[in-house]
Amino acid sequence: MHSKPKHRIRLLSSKTCFSKLAFFFTSVALILLISHIATAENPVFEAIGTDNRPSPENIERGWISLFDGETLFGWKAQSNADWKVSDWTIKATRGDKGLLRTTTQFSNYELSVDFKATAQTNSGVFLRTSPAPKNATDGCYEINIAPETDPFPTGSIVEHSRVKQPIESDDQWHNLRMIISGDLGEVFLDGQKVSIISAGGLGRGYIGLQFRKHEVQFRNIFLNPLDLKPLLTNKGLDKWISDGSGETTFTINEAQQLQMQSGPGQLESKQHFADFVLSAKIKTNAKGLNSGIFFRCIPGEKMNGYESQIQNQMVDGDPTKPFDCGTGGIFRRQNARRIVAQDKQWFYKTIVAVGPHISVWVNGYQVTDWTDKRKPDANPRRGLRLSAGSIMLQGHDPTTDVLFEKINAAELLPRR
Questions:
Q1: Is residue 182 within 8 Å of residue 109, measured between CB atoms?
Q2: Which of 106, 149, 182, 323 shows the smallest number of beta carbons within 10 Å?
Q3: Per-residue b/e over 383-415, b at no fewer than 16 CB within 10 Å?
Q4: 30-39, 159-168, 391-400: which has the minimum mean pLDDT?
Q5: Phi, psi for residue 61 in degrees, rounded to 5
Q6: pTM of this prediction?
C-alpha cells in the first residue's frame, strides 16, 4: 500500500505554471479530438426510407432505390438460386451459389441494405463486382453475411478485414451501410463502423447479393452516387454553350434556377461525358410540356444524342401507360415503365450510362433499363455511340417552360 502523502504548500515559478497550464489545455484538446474522431467513426445513421422507397428528403439528397419491392427490374441472376420477390423482400432459399446483381454499374457511392439471416446463413453484398466472380477476391469486394464462427463474420470484408465484435445471426433485420469512394471503402453494421479497406484497383462494377447457404432476405436497397460535380453554378451558365440559333431563351432567374422558355433550341455543356452518372432537379411549369436531357451528343450538332425524355402525361390516367415515351424513357428506344413525376411539381432524375447500357430513375424509382444492341456508329441516331459527348437540354417548342435547379454529373471510374 502507498502511504498517504503529507499536505505541502509549494510556490511555483511562472515558467512551471505556464508549463502545467499548457499541458492541461493540450490534454483537454486531445480528449475533445478523440471524442470527435469517435463520433466520426460511428456517425448516427437515419433510415434512408421505408417500404423500399427513399424518403422525399433523401430523394432530394440524391438517393435512389435499387429494388422496387415488387419485381426484380434492374437485376440479373448469375446462378440458379431461387431468387424471388416475396412480402416486399428479395429472398433466396436454395439453389446454386452465386449472385443476383444489378444490371447497372456504379463506382463511387453510399449503399444501404437491410438483410435478414438465419444462424446458418452464408451470404454477402458484393461491391464493384464483375458479373460472376469466381471467389471473394476475383474482381470484387464481398461484405460478408455469416455466423460468428465464420473466419469473416457479418460485416467483414472477406480476405481483407475481419470485424472485431461479431453480431449473432438471429433471424432479425439488420442494416449494412457501405461507403466507397475512390480508393477507400468503409462498412457500418447497424450504425457501427466495423470494417475499412483500400478499395483501389477495381473502378466501377456491379452490386451483387449473394446466395451461398441457407435462407437470406434483402429489402430497402438504396444507393446515393457520390462525388458528382455541379454543372449549374453561382456563376450562371459558365459551363454551358448556346449558339443563339434557336428560339429558346436560357436565363438564371432570381431563385438561381435555370429557366428554359420557348423553342425549339438547345443548351450544350462544355464538358463531355462517356460513361457517367447525372442527377437533375426539374420542374415543368405547365401540363403536358415536352423536353429532354440529351447525352453523348455529337458536339455542335442539333440534339444528336440519346434523349432521356421529359413528358409527364399518361394514357387514360394509367401511370403504366406513358404518353410519348414518358419521363425517364429513352426516346424512340424504350418507354418509361411508369410515370412517377407530375407537372408543376419538382422531380428528380438520375441517369447512369455505362457502355451500351442506360438506366434512369425518376424520384428514386427506376423507370428505364435498356441496352443498345445496335451496331456501333459515331452517330447515335444510326447506332451505338460510346464516345464521350456533350449534355444538351432541349427547348422543345413554343410552349416550353422548364426549370432546372440542380444538374450534377461525374464520369464513372474505368473498370480496371
A1: no
A2: 149
A3: ebbbebbbbbbbbbeeebbbbbebbbbbbbbeb
A4: 30-39
A5: -80, -10
A6: 0.89
